[in-house]
From TrEMBL:
PROSITE patterns per record: RNASE_H_1
Chain coiled-coil ranges: none
Species in which this protein is naturally found: Geobacillus genomosp. 3
A molecular function (GO) term: nucleic acid binding
Pfam families on file: RVT_3 (PF13456)
Classification via SUPFAM superfamilies: Ribonuclease H-like
Domain RNase H type-1: 70-207
Gene3D superfamilies to which the protein is assigned, alphabetical: Ribonuclease H-like superfamily/Ribonuclease H (3.30.420.10)
Name the record gives this protein: RNase H type-1 domain-containing protein
Length: 221
């Protein structure tokens, strides 16, 4: 969970100044906040997450304790593929997350029927990721979504309009699930090379190779 610190302090000349930190991990932010308070010049200290929610030190400490046993620091990759000859689609997803001080990777794919285009396969792949997050128990947390479909990510973020009825139906379904789970999305388009894990899973699904596996990662994993 990334946050920013907004520190209002009193200068040696008794003037107020406000400093805003770079985005940093919540645990590191709490250590920084302790250092700021040791100066004896702190007037106010506010911690803000990427969703715009403001936290006090005490509130953030309580939150981190509560979520430690739940999946958090979630990064989800997705990719969809479409075979024009068979009119079949494939969805691939890779979800990285932390839980109980351990790091995990979930890899899964799915064969898709009733898909009309590659773009629709990308929407279906994003929906597949949402279902995986629900099964993992991800609730009321920020999640970073990465994929090489800039169309899907830009339309979900509202940066690009969507005029196709079929795609709008997927958008509505995804956004409804996002609200139900309380997920605060961060959309990060990536290159195809950076999305190779999810791409490979989508291709395997098209070939009929269905995969579901969870791995605990080492420090080098």
């Amino acid at each position: 969970m990334d946050v920013q610190i907004r520190w209002t302090y009193i200068t040696p000349k008794k003037q107020e100044a406000v400093l805003v930190s770079d985005w940093t991990d919540a645990k590191e932010a709490l250590m920084l906040a302790d250092d700021f308070e040791k100066t004896g010049r702190t007037k106010a200290l506010e911690i803000i997450d990427r969703g715009g929610t403001s936290w006090s030190k005490k509130e953030l400490q309580k939150l981190l304790k509560e979520i430690e046993s739940e999946p958090h620091d979630v990064v989800a990759y997705f990719d969809g593929g479409f075979d024009h000859e068979t009119a079949q689609g494939g969805a691939g997803a890779v979800v990285y997350y932390k839980q109980n001080d351990h790091r995990y990777r979930l890899r899964a794919n799915r064969r898709l029927g009733g898909i009309k285009s590659n773009n629709e396969a990308e929407y279906a792949a994003f929906w597949f990721v949402m279902q995986l997050l629900e099964e993992l128990g991800v609730r009321h947390l920020p999640v970073t979504f990465r994929g090489d479909s800039h169309v899907v990510l830009k339309q979900l973020s509202g940066d690009w309009p969507c005029f196709e009825d079929d795609y709008n139906a997927w958008l509505d379904r995804i956004e409804e699930k996002m609200r139900a789970l309380g997920i605060q999305p961060v959309y990060e388009p990536v290159s195809r090379k950076q999305n190779k894990e999810a791409d490979s899973l989508a291709r395997q699904a098209l070939d009929g190779q269905l995969i579901t596996g969870q791995t605990e990662l080492t420090e080098k994993g």
